[in-house]
Write a structure and sequence with these properties.
Elements lengths: L13 E3 L2 E10 L2 H9 L4 E5 L13 H13 L3 E6 L8 H13 L4 E4 L13 E4 L8 H10 L3 E3 L6 H10 L4 E7 L11 H6 L16 E4 L5 E6 L6 E3 L4 H7 L1 E6 L6 H21 L4 E3 L4 E4 L13 E2 L24 E9 L4 E6 L8 E5 L5 E10 L2 E4 L10 E6 L1 H8 L4 E14 L2 E7 L5 E7 L3 E2 L5 H8 L7 E8 L4 E2 L2 H22 L29 H9 L22 E6 L3 H4 L16 E4 L4 E7 L4 E6 L6
């Protein structure tokens, strides 16, 4: 592992004696998944509250979040709660009440989008600027830091070189996505779902228009491409680029997936945690993990075995991605890993196949039929290379087979034995006058001792092994004995005395953790905060309530003609509405970039169409951006 240059990280991050604390941030749809993420190596988890969490199907009660906080803080793991939808006027009081409840149970920070929270009477809980805040420029990042945000979630579209410019502009930690589904539009600035279906992405109701099958048409309606998922991106995978991101200035590495199940989260968290551990262990003078504890895994993490649409590092490396490298146009589903090819069809449920690796009873397979549609089936039984399907399948020789469910591997993840997280302790047992003393050290700067009056008597046989057995019985605590230094010699100490010492010492260490736990309280806004130069407030800033409007007016927004409102509260009057802006370019993906000689392969005016909607594509080649306009209220 290479030695990492620490200079780009001279600002931001969580600094302790000039060591950067590296945070792996995991998603959790509920308390069960949150605990699984912690046990598999997360340094922080983020989850939705009972409302306004941008994922309606991933809401959690205050009671459930309290339980996660209590468990997480035992390992120094932080809990962030998402309150990152836009808020309507009639909801402001309820959101303020919710924030006070979250603060009261010890939540570490809120991930938010709506500037209304900066105008509420809130407790001093840390606020993180969600990716929904659309932080595209260093100037916007600096503005949000100065407004009082303690951590900034960067857009997925940034390259490592661009991240470095953000690092130079701010002092707060930078958080960036490393794995999971990609929104094709800049986050927070997508109105496609709302305009097309009435379901707002900024209200946690995204209809995922970008995963639809589209026809690509010219101006006359002539179909150039039929029924392809032209806006459906592959999933992000930056396992091989964590060092580059650290060098660029990222200290919090975020996994997407608050709707994913426990198996997915366990696998991805384990893969990234081990990768970060390798980097940290190779650079101990520069980095350390933000939480404490050691994880032992009962399986081999492999992100390719979990749900994915194919992988991309997106724009991290800079430059123009190669044609065909970003989108998964054939299917928005997980096709799985290629496992072989059909050799012979015996019946509508039995086939012989040439396999790349052995299969198991219960595995899930899939294939693309002659129409290009992905079809899946479950295996009832496997006999060598002969496969027995649980349902009728229509395949022919030569079709490729993909495994999208590995039963044997998945059973390990579901068994409860996939990982064990614990805090390794060094113990020192010694005498001090008439006292018996047990000292504990966790290797992270926490040292405690417990003592008891006891007159040691000579033993008739060696006692060290028996004492170690008693002291290592740490039961269902988060601790495990790593090393015992026993200085008593051959004296007899009853097991009951050792048990009391061990319990008292562990209780003292737990109390020390609780007393020493550090919260990152809310930053104060700088005096005289103003809008960044050249920044114009528009409907793309998603102003949906009076407090958000007040915030922008107070910092110099031009109020002439009224404050622009979010489309959810005030539909614009124009016939063409820009519903997406993307760094992804369909022309480039199809090998027809306007900056290349292949321009003539596609006409100048292009449209995406479904049975009910038509979208005009506009290409801003100077900025290398694609704009998507809805024509639902117009014929184009």
């Amino acid at each position: 592992m290479k030695e990492i240059n620490k200079e780009p990280l001279s600002k931001g991050g969580n600094l302790t004696d000039d060591i950067i604390e590296v945070e792996l941030l995991a998603p959790a749809r509920n308390a069960e998944v949150a605990v699984a993420a912690i046990n598999h190596g997360a340094d922080a988890v983020y989850m939705g509250a009972s409302s306004h969490g941008a994922r309606q199907q991933a809401s959690n009660s205050i009671s459930d979040i309290r339980g996660v906080v209590e468990y997480a803080h035992r390992f120094g793991v932080k809990v962030y709660v998402t309150v990152n939808t836009i808020i309507y006027d009639e909801e402001l009081a309820g959101v303020e009440k919710l924030v006070w409840e979250l603060y009261g149970i010890g939540v570490d920070a809120l991930i938010v989008q709506d500037m209304a929270l900066l105008e509420m009477k809130l407790p001093p809980i840390a606020l993180h600027a969600s990716t929904q805040c659309d932080i595209r420029t260093p100037e916007k990042a600096r503005f949000l830091q100065d407004a009082g945000f303690s951590q900034l979630v960067l857009p997925r579209e940034l390259s490592a070189d661009e991240i470095r410019k953000f690092r130079e502009a701010v002092d707060v930690p930078l958080e960036a996505f490393v794995h999971g589904a990609l929104c094709v539009s800049y986050s927070g600035d997508c109105q496609a779902s709302f305009i097309a279906t009435g379901r707002s992405a900024n209200r946690g109701e995204c209809a995922q228009i970008c995963r639809y099958a589209f026809d690509l048409e010219d101006e006359t309606g002539r179909k150039l491409v039929r029924g392809k998922h032209l806006l459906s991106l592959k999933d992000m995978n930056r396992l091989d680029y964590l060092s580059d991101m650290l060098e660029a200035g990222v200290s919090s590495f975020k996994i997407e997936g608050r709707l994913k199940d426990a198996a997915y989260v366990k696998n991805v968290v384990a893969a990234y945690s081990r990768a970060l551990d390798r980097i940290v262990s190779a650079n101990p003078r520069h980095f350390r993990r933000a939480s404490r504890g050691r994880v032992e895994y009962g399986f081999e993490p492999d992100v390719a075995k979990g749900f994915n649409r194919g992988f991309t590092s997106y724009f991290l490396k800079g430059g123009s991605p190669a044609a065909g490298s970003l989108a998964s146009v054939d299917s928005p589903k997980w096709t799985g890993e290629r496992i072989g090819v059909v050799k012979r069809v015996v019946s509508n449920r039995i086939v012989d196949a040439d396999l790349d690796s052995p299969l198991e009873n219960g595995d899930g397979l899939g294939f693309f039929n002659d129409a290009g549609v992905y079809c899946g089936f479950r295996l009832n039984r496997v006999d060598g290379s002969r496969l027995f399907a649980a349902s009728d399948i229509e395949v022919r020789p030569g079709m490729e087979l993909y495994r999208n469910f590995d039963k044997k591997w998945s059973d390990v993840l579901a068994s409860g034995k996939s990982a064990r997280r614990y805090i390794p302790l060094s113990m020192l047992l010694r005498k001090a006058g008439g006292m018996l003393v047990l000292e504990l050290c966790d290797g992270r700067g926490h040292d405690v001792a417990a003592s008891v009056e006891f007159e040691c008597q000579p033993a008739k046989s060696p006692q060290a092994e028996a004492r170690q057995r008693v002291l290592s019985k740490l039961g269902d605590t988060e601790f495990a004995l790593d090393k015992l230094t026993d200085r008593l010699g051959d004296v007899f100490v009853p097991a009951s005395v050792l048990t009391t010492l061990r319990r008292d010492a562990v209780a003292a260490l737990s109390a020390t953790y609780q007393a020493a736990y550090k919260y990152d309280y809310r930053r104060g806004a700088v005096s005289g905060l103003r809008l960044p130069q050249g920044f114009m407030v528009s409907r793309h800033d998603n102003i949906a309530n009076r407090l958000s409007e007040k915030f922008y007016r107070n910092i110099g927004a031009d109020a002439d003609g009224g404050m622009p409102r979010a489309v959810e509260v005030e539909l614009p009057g124009e016939a063409r509405i820009r519903v997406m802006q993307t760094r992804y370019c369909l022309r480039r993906e199809l090998g027809c970039c306007l900056k290349t000689e292949n321009t003539s392969r596609l006409p100048a005016k292009l449209y995406l169409a479904t049975a009910t909607d038509r979208f005009r594509l506009q290409f801003d080649c100077a900025a290398c951006r694609m704009n998507v306009y809805s024509l639902r209220s117009s014929k184009g």
